[in-house]
């Protein structure tokens, strides 16, 4: 065998092999590579969209947090205002109750004072009658001299 013939046969076999690969093996490999490239491109695009959506979500979350803080501040402000209103109302009620109790106490004191005066008048009248009896050395009829005793009690 001649080396030239061997080289020629090997070249022909290699050419057939390359033609066979180009016709039957290369198209599925290229198709798989193109599909893989498309999937990778879709993945990158989805990742980019996800990143943009994440940024938008973070911005929205910040806006929602600011709004929530504002609402919380409003609620705290309203609660403080309501607390002050309730406190003022309680103070007014307490003042009104104290005034009512004070008025009732003054009325009771006035009644007690009048009762004590009446008792004192009656006692003074009795003492005056007793003193008059001793002075006159006889019994004075309190019923008979009732008008005189009452006028004397009123003067006291």
Automatic annotation (TrEMBL):
Cell membrane as UniProt keyword: yes
Where does the UniProt entry say this protein principally localizes? membrane
Record key words, sorted: ATP synthesis, Cell membrane, CF(0), Hydrogen ion transport, Ion transport, Membrane, Transmembrane, Transmembrane helix, Transport
Q: Which Gene3D superfamilies match?
A: F1F0 ATP synthase subunit B, membrane domain
Lipid bilayer topology? Single-pass membrane protein
Give TM regions: 6-26
The subcellular localization recorded is: Cell membrane; Endomembrane system
- Tell me the InterPro entries matching this sequence: ATP_synth_B-like_membr_sf, ATP_synth_b/b'su_bac/chlpt, ATP_synth_F0_bsu_bac, ATP_synthase_B_chain
Query: CDD domains, alphabetically?
Result: ATP-synt_Fo_b
The protein's job, in short, is: Component of the F(0) channel, it forms part of the peripheral stalk, linking F(1) to F(0). The b'-subunit is a diverged and duplicated form of b found in plants and photosynthetic bacteria.
On assembly, the entry states: F-type ATPases have 2 components, F(1) - the catalytic core - and F(0) - the membrane proton channel. F(1) has five subunits: alpha(3), beta(3), gamma(1), delta(1), epsilon(1). F(0) has three main subunits: a(1), b(2) and c(10-14). The alpha and beta chains form an alternating ring which encloses part of the gamma chain. F(1) is attached to F(0) by a central stalk formed by the gamma and epsilon chains, while a peripheral stalk is formed by the delta and b chains. F-type ATPases have 2 components, F(1) - the catalytic core - and F(0) - the membrane proton channel. F(1) has five subunits: alpha(3), beta(3), gamma(1), delta(1), epsilon(1). F(0) has four main subunits: a(1), b(2) and c(10-14). The alpha and beta chains form an alternating ring which encloses part of the gamma chain. F(1) is attached to F(0) by a central stalk formed by the gamma and epsilon chains, while a peripheral stalk is formed by the delta and b chains.
Please give the family membership noted in the entry: Belongs to the ATPase B chain family.
Q: Which protein are we looking at?
A: ATP synthase subunit b
Natural source organism: Thiohalocapsa halophila
């Amino acid at each position: 065998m001649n080396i030239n013939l061997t080289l020629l046969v090997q070249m022909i076999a290699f050419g057939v092999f390359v033609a066979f690969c180009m016709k039957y093996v290369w198209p599925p490999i290229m198709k798989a590579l193109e599909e893989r490239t498309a999937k990778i491109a879709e993945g990158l695009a989805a990742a980019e969209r996800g990143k943009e959506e994440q940024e938008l979500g973070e911005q929205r979350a910040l806006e929602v947090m600011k709004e929530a803080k504002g609402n919380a501040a409003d609620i705290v402000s309203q609660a403080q205002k309501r607390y002050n209103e309730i406190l003022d109302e309680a103070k007014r009620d307490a003042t009104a109750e104290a005034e009512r109790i004070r008025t009732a106490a003054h009325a009771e004191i006035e009644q007690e004072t009048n009762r004590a005066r009446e008792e004192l008048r009656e006692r003074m009248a009795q003492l005056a009658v007793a003193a008059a009896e001793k002075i006159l050395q006889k019994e004075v009829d309190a019923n008979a001299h009732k008008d005189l005793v009452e006028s004397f009690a009123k003067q006291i």
